[in-house]
Specification:
Two copies of one chain form a homodimer. The first copy, chain A, is of the alpha/beta class. Helices cover 40% and strands 23% of the residues of chain A. The first copy, chain A, has helices spanning 11-23, 34-42, 60-69, 85-93, 106-117, 153-164, 172-180, 190-202, and strands at 3-7, 27-31, 48-52, 76-80, 98-101, 127-130, 133-136, 141-144, 147-150, 169-170, 207-210, 214-217. In chain A, helix 3 links the parallel strand 3 (48-52) and strand 4 (76-80). The structure holds a DNA duplex.
DNA sequence: AGCGCACATGAGAGGACTCTCATGGCCGTG
DNA sequence: CACGGCCATGAGAGTCCTCTCATGTGCGCT
């Protein structure tokens, strides 16, 4: 449905984004150098570009500049290194629509992409619902059977992944990369612990264990 | 420039919003009952409505429904009581564009209003700059003279008010209501303390004291 | 110059949050 | 039924954040 171009040369990050997008029903294409990125972006086959700044052959800034010179109006989200504010500012002034500082959680990128693809006057998606469970994406609060529950930032991010994939089994690895980012210790049992926190707040039965696989939101 | 309708019967809150909007260059109009709200909203004289749900004569839901029935496409932001998730959901499904749970900080409302008034394809304002000081509205980070500095949520909100009003003297009261909300103890010296924190992180001279008046961002 | 008020500052209480670690329990298989 | 692995759980360390309070300092006015 929505075709997204990923211009990123670090394999690990490119694959991280690619997998995430596929899981959300997008059909991403990955290229790993600037020249290819520009060509694809101008082809008209894509609806949005995720553009790394540090690309070989032609850096992201140049790609962006040429793209805009050629009147390509496609939305561009740039990926910048943490702390390089000047790059970020330059990118936005150079015509980028948004940016993500590395390292990032996949879900943050997803939110940015949604924002840019969203059609006019569609009320911004601010509430997620599944049965009697509601998540308010802005106030970081949930409500279950009418009760209002405060969630911490982490708890909320985790709950959001479940709500966006109701009934689907999510592995610890998936949850870890969605909620904790691609840089987190894969040995940790944080996911278990936070699932417990959520169960305590949302109700034990709300999240089911699928032995050997992961967890799943009850539907 | 942008005409905003405030439909709110609690005087204190209406005035809180009104003052804030005026300070930001808007020209708000206040009405305190639902019938008047509907009339004004349909008049075509306004660009956005801030609509309280609990209005006398005709409640917010009804106003909203009638407005949409009459094909009024004006953006509507509803104000809901804290914890009333069902009201919020109903409001959004009833055609509201966004919502604010009470009590809220003025700046949060402002951000919502900006979002709704923003014109197509204008890159979302995500960075504020003043000289060598930059605020990244998304990552909650600042950068001064190239250095990157992490700010806490409160520090950041305070810094944002200064950055949005460079050179202007801001009273403790203004800062309190912007950053802490209209419900906060006006006797507290939190503002002083947080100004200190900011000075420590951003540089002493960056925020000037105007004796008897308040504080000001150095330009 | 001296006074009074406004502002600056240090210290710390209290709480929330995130994550680790160790242990205990249970499921499913052989 | 016994075992091994997977999962659940409790406890707690370390950190950060927010705000209050008491006291120090200095500005500006008379």
């Amino acid at each position: 449905m929505n075709r997204i171009l990923i211009a990123e040369d670090e394999r690990r990050i490119a694959s991280f984004i690619e997998k995430g997008l596929k899981a959300h029903g997008f059909t991403p294409t990955v290229v790993d150098d600037g020249a290819a990125a520009l060509g694809h972006a101008l082809s008209g086959d894509f609806d949005l570009v995720v553009l790394d700044i540090g690309l070989p052959r032609m850096d992201g800034f140049t790609v962006l500049r040429r793209l805009r010179e050629a009147k390509g109006a496609i939305p561009v989200i740039i990926l910048t290194a943490r702390g390089s504010v000047s790059d970020t500012v330059a990118g936005l002034e150079g015509g980028a629509d948004d940016y993500m500082p590395k390292p990032f959680r996949f879900d943050e990128l997803m939110a940015r992409i949604r924002l840019r693809l969203r059609t006019e006057r569609s009320p911004e998606m601010t509430m997620l619902q599944q049965g009697t469970l509601t998540l308010d994406l802005r106030t970081r609060r949930a409500s279950v059977e009418g009760r209002t529950v405060d969630l911490s930032a982490r708890e909320f991010a985790l709950a959001e992944v479940f709500l966006r994939n109701p009934g689907q089994v999510l592995s610890r690895g998936q949850l870890l990369s969605h909620v904790w980012g691609y840089d987190f210790d894969p040995e940790s049992n944080v996911v278990d612990v936070y699932v417990r926190y959520l169960r305590k707040k949302l109700g034990q039965a709300r999240i089911e264990t699928v032995r050997g696989m992961g967890y799943r939101l009850a539907t």
